[in-house]
Specification:
Elements lengths: L6 E6 L3 E6 L11 H6 L1 E3 L3 E5 L4 E9 L10 E9 L3 E5 L6 E4 L3 E10 L5 E9 L1
Parallel strand pairs: 5-10
Antiparallel strand pairs: 1-5, 2-4, 2-7, 3-4, 6-9, 7-8, 9-10
Length: 128
Protein backbone atom coordinates (compact mmCIF):
# COMPACT_ATOMS: atom_id res chain seq x y z
CA UNK A 1 0.00 0.00 0.00
CA UNK A 2 1.29 3.42 -0.93
CA UNK A 3 0.80 6.48 1.24
CA UNK A 4 -0.97 9.59 -0.02
CA UNK A 5 0.94 12.85 -0.54
CA UNK A 6 4.17 11.07 -1.43
CA UNK A 7 6.02 11.00 -4.75
CA UNK A 8 6.23 7.65 -6.55
CA UNK A 9 7.88 6.64 -9.77
CA UNK A 10 5.87 4.84 -12.46
CA UNK A 11 6.86 3.70 -15.92
CA UNK A 12 4.38 4.96 -18.52
CA UNK A 13 3.79 3.07 -21.73
CA UNK A 14 1.32 3.53 -24.57
CA UNK A 15 0.94 7.16 -23.42
CA UNK A 16 -1.67 6.37 -20.77
CA UNK A 17 -2.18 6.15 -17.02
CA UNK A 18 -5.21 4.34 -15.66
CA UNK A 19 -6.90 5.06 -12.33
CA UNK A 20 -9.37 2.41 -11.17
CA UNK A 21 -11.12 1.12 -8.08
CA UNK A 22 -11.11 -2.24 -6.38
CA UNK A 23 -8.86 -5.26 -6.39
CA UNK A 24 -9.51 -6.34 -9.94
CA UNK A 25 -7.17 -5.91 -12.86
CA UNK A 26 -7.19 -2.64 -14.75
CA UNK A 27 -10.28 -2.13 -16.88
CA UNK A 28 -10.04 -2.27 -20.64
CA UNK A 29 -10.80 1.25 -21.80
CA UNK A 30 -11.49 2.09 -25.43
CA UNK A 31 -9.77 5.23 -26.72
CA UNK A 32 -12.21 6.65 -29.26
CA UNK A 33 -11.32 9.63 -31.45
CA UNK A 34 -13.29 11.89 -29.07
CA UNK A 35 -11.42 10.46 -26.06
CA UNK A 36 -8.08 11.13 -27.73
CA UNK A 37 -9.09 14.75 -28.41
CA UNK A 38 -10.19 15.34 -24.81
CA UNK A 39 -7.16 13.63 -23.24
CA UNK A 40 -8.97 10.93 -21.26
CA UNK A 41 -11.18 7.89 -21.72
CA UNK A 42 -13.59 6.38 -19.19
CA UNK A 43 -14.57 2.79 -18.52
CA UNK A 44 -16.89 0.98 -16.15
CA UNK A 45 -14.65 1.20 -13.08
CA UNK A 46 -11.90 3.59 -14.08
CA UNK A 47 -10.48 6.31 -16.25
CA UNK A 48 -7.35 6.53 -18.39
CA UNK A 49 -5.53 9.81 -18.81
CA UNK A 50 -3.28 10.60 -21.72
CA UNK A 51 0.40 10.42 -20.81
CA UNK A 52 2.63 13.02 -22.41
CA UNK A 53 5.68 10.78 -22.85
CA UNK A 54 6.47 7.12 -22.43
CA UNK A 55 9.08 6.44 -19.73
CA UNK A 56 9.53 7.27 -16.06
CA UNK A 57 7.10 9.71 -14.46
CA UNK A 58 6.46 10.99 -10.95
CA UNK A 59 3.03 10.27 -9.45
CA UNK A 60 1.47 12.15 -6.52
CA UNK A 61 -1.97 11.24 -5.15
CA UNK A 62 -3.86 13.55 -2.79
CA UNK A 63 -7.25 13.42 -1.07
CA UNK A 64 -9.27 16.58 -0.23
CA UNK A 65 -6.66 19.17 0.83
CA UNK A 66 -4.56 20.05 -2.19
CA UNK A 67 -2.79 22.96 -3.83
CA UNK A 68 -2.29 22.51 -7.57
CA UNK A 69 1.30 22.47 -8.80
CA UNK A 70 2.69 25.91 -9.60
CA UNK A 71 3.34 24.90 -13.20
CA UNK A 72 0.58 22.90 -14.89
CA UNK A 73 0.55 22.08 -18.60
CA UNK A 74 -2.84 20.35 -18.55
CA UNK A 75 -5.60 19.54 -16.09
CA UNK A 76 -8.51 17.18 -16.64
CA UNK A 77 -11.36 16.69 -14.13
CA UNK A 78 -13.77 13.75 -14.29
CA UNK A 79 -16.38 12.30 -11.91
CA UNK A 80 -15.11 9.20 -10.10
CA UNK A 81 -17.43 6.87 -8.15
CA UNK A 82 -15.38 4.81 -5.72
CA UNK A 83 -16.96 1.69 -4.19
CA UNK A 84 -13.87 -0.05 -2.75
CA UNK A 85 -11.26 0.68 -0.09
CA UNK A 86 -8.41 1.34 -2.52
CA UNK A 87 -7.73 2.97 -5.85
CA UNK A 88 -4.98 1.83 -8.17
CA UNK A 89 -2.85 3.73 -10.66
CA UNK A 90 -0.94 1.94 -13.39
CA UNK A 91 0.11 2.00 -17.01
CA UNK A 92 0.28 -0.83 -19.53
CA UNK A 93 2.95 -3.37 -18.47
CA UNK A 94 3.85 -1.35 -15.36
CA UNK A 95 3.66 -1.89 -11.63
CA UNK A 96 0.45 -0.96 -9.82
CA UNK A 97 0.39 1.78 -7.20
CA UNK A 98 -2.37 1.27 -4.61
CA UNK A 99 -3.78 3.98 -2.31
CA UNK A 100 -6.34 3.93 0.52
CA UNK A 101 -9.24 6.18 -0.46
CA UNK A 102 -12.61 6.04 1.38
CA UNK A 103 -15.62 4.95 -0.63
CA UNK A 104 -17.64 7.77 -2.12
CA UNK A 105 -18.22 10.12 -5.01
CA UNK A 106 -15.29 12.28 -6.10
CA UNK A 107 -14.10 14.73 -8.66
CA UNK A 108 -10.79 13.34 -9.87
CA UNK A 109 -8.40 15.84 -11.38
CA UNK A 110 -5.19 14.85 -13.14
CA UNK A 111 -2.68 17.72 -13.31
CA UNK A 112 0.16 17.17 -15.77
CA UNK A 113 3.42 19.09 -15.43
CA UNK A 114 6.08 18.55 -18.07
CA UNK A 115 9.62 18.63 -16.73
CA UNK A 116 12.94 18.28 -18.56
CA UNK A 117 13.81 14.93 -16.94
CA UNK A 118 10.34 13.40 -16.41
CA UNK A 119 6.66 14.35 -16.30
CA UNK A 120 4.76 14.79 -13.05
CA UNK A 121 1.15 13.63 -12.69
CA UNK A 122 -0.77 14.85 -9.64
CA UNK A 123 -4.04 13.02 -8.99
CA UNK A 124 -6.40 14.95 -6.72
CA UNK A 125 -9.52 13.27 -5.29
CA UNK A 126 -12.08 15.82 -4.06
CA UNK A 127 -15.21 14.54 -2.31
CA UNK A 128 -18.47 15.78 -3.79
Amino acid sequence: MNALNQIYSLSISYHQLTVYAGNQSPPVIDWTDDAIRQGFATGESGVSFEGVHNGRASIITTLDNFEPPSSVDRSVTVPFKHTHDHIHITSVMSQVLSFPIPKGDYELTCYTSRQSDQDIYSFYFKRV
